[in-house]
Amino acid sequence: MSEFKFVCREEELTFAQEELSQKKFIIYYYFNDSGLTHYLKKLSLNLNNDNEICFYVDCAKNQSIAIQIATQIISSSDKRKLSKYTQNEGLVIKKIIDSLTTSIDIIPFVNVGELLSGFATAIKNTLDTDIEHLSDYKIEKAIISMLRQIVKKGKISKVFFLIDDISSSQPESLEFIAKIMDFNIVNVLVTIPNNHINIGAENLSKICSNTFEPFELDKVFERPSDDMIKGLYRCYDCSFDEKYLNVFNRYERNIHIIMSYIRGFHMDFMRLDKNSILLLKIMLILNTSIYIKTLNAIYNKSLHLSSNMDDSNFKIFINTLINRGFLGIDQYDYIHLNHNIISEDEIKITLVERLTISRDIIDIFERCKTELTISQLKFAIHNLDKDYSRRKSYILVLLKKEKIVGQVEQQYLDMLFYLDNKIDLINICSMYYDLQVYDVPFLRIQQHTEFIEERECQDLVALLQERLHKDNYCQKLWEQLISSANIDEQCLLMAVLFTALFNNGENEECLKILNDLNYKFYYKKFSSSHYYHFLLRNVSYYMENVEEGIHNYNYCLSKFRNSDPVNYNRTLSNFIGYLMKQINKKPAKSILESKIEEVKAILEFNDQKYLYLNINYGIYLMLETNDDPTQYFESILFNSGTTETPYIYARINQALYIAKSNPVKALSCLDEIFYTLICDSSTRSEERRVGKEC
Prior knowledge:
By secondary structure, this protein is an alpha/beta fold. Among the domains are: 25-216, Rossmann fold (3-Layer(aba) Sandwich); 226-263, no CATH class; 269-367, Orthogonal Bundle (Arc Repressor Mutant, subunit A), CATH 1.10.10; 626-693. It is built from 34 helices and eight strands. The strands form two sheets. Strands 2-3-4-1-5 form a five-stranded parallel sheet, sandwiched between helices. α29 (588-603) crosses α30. The longest helix is centred in the middle third of the chain and has 17 residues, at 388-404. The radius of gyration is 30 Å and the shape is globular. The model is unreliable at 683-694 (pLDDT under 50).
């Protein structure tokens, strides 16, 4: 870490350290712009020693707590140590490690070698995906695994977490904090700004349990006192004038204003030269970090001069603004604005300036579209609302990047209307399908009449009709299957068709597929397909030979294991459903008990993608234990435009659980389900379908 200057907060520092060493969970209230972040980093430095580790986490960042912790571990090590721990590992682990490397000013760990070794081992032990499904990997699993290793080894006695501004925390991070609190070696300090006490208290309620109560420090972290301000001037070898206190009081002793004065800039933006103001306006309008050479090109275009500023002079110019505290730069030469000092309250931007500068930014972006970050692409999209053709090109690049990281946002899919080629159309409709939104892509394909008869589009139409229970979807799937000459395509279509036939009440046809060796579409005739395990998963649920069913499910799980976690968990869900159905046959019960332990571990890191795993685990709790399954049934939400089956299935099972203690209320719930959901369902036999959905 670069030279860390810390003055006149020793009393607060000692006070917090003493309380943190004795208390499991501490709340510290503070005034914003008080210098708390700097203070917490100093506290973290003090708490990192031979047998203790401390992590600092900023909840205001657009990153989960787990990602920030992992980033600190990876980035605290030099490249040689990193290569040592990854040299014998596969591409997936190296990709994860690379994604966590950052240029931020990292707080060093005394135990960095052991920490890195433990974390690398934890990733290896929890890895459940291949490179194609990397976005489904949860780094939280590795952190929890690492903490278990630390406890087991016993070399580190305490792990501290300093959580800055819990009021800004994301829901998944709150769940993660609750998990790490289960470790006896973990102590946590969370801070809450005085202007967001209610939100902070609400977030705390999601963390706290009956086993521990938070301890509130009786001191508030205040803005700098006179002594601290004078100490800062001495620390930075600057002369202090008592008149400055009047200035700082006008700004409510904002630490960022004070530091700007110390660095030589007295907050009079009218004294800045016009070129500096122009560059700050560009950064304000862009509102995201940007590569220094791209920023130089935008700046030169906005100057509208015949001669441009070259790279070397531009870097000198940028360094001047960095030294004043207006800008920051990382090791990859990305520039970001210091929003603690610079805002549009200080630097006014007219409408004409905003439009002109935005146009200049996008003109430069046209040269490097595929290299832009997600934030930069979003800027272009939101500033091209009247130019659909150009806007569409940015949306397509954005969605491609979001798909790679597993964070496709439907709002950008919805901005697309007409697509110029079949590949883009199929890709966009497939993204909707992956988001479990089916009505919109169905309409999109209908609108593209020039592509609709293409083979790939017709396959997609058949799949969407099945999800929406629209028209004669079984017949459509049959047509696509019979007309196909590709074994892989046939197998995938049959996997969907088999379940659709059962849901549609065509049981005799299903039994032929399952049992008739001479039938043209007997399921084993697809065994040469690369996708046979998708079909096998669906047919195995209906096998009466339990040993064969168990063998098939284990085979399917082996195909998805460590490659596709979503399909692995879906298959596991089907498997425990099958074992519960066959509970009275050997060895279903013993295998069910072993698989339930695995399900518990998966649902410790729950996810909306695991709909049926939640439902079937809830059914297990209801049938085989005295535990309350409500949280698992209630985790299934209803979304229009998707298949309603998971939601209905969860609600029915919740009603059955309620019937144990309150039959009248259960009947009322079932009435509501029937009249508001099943009667209006587009399928003929939703109540039959809910038990068989794959």
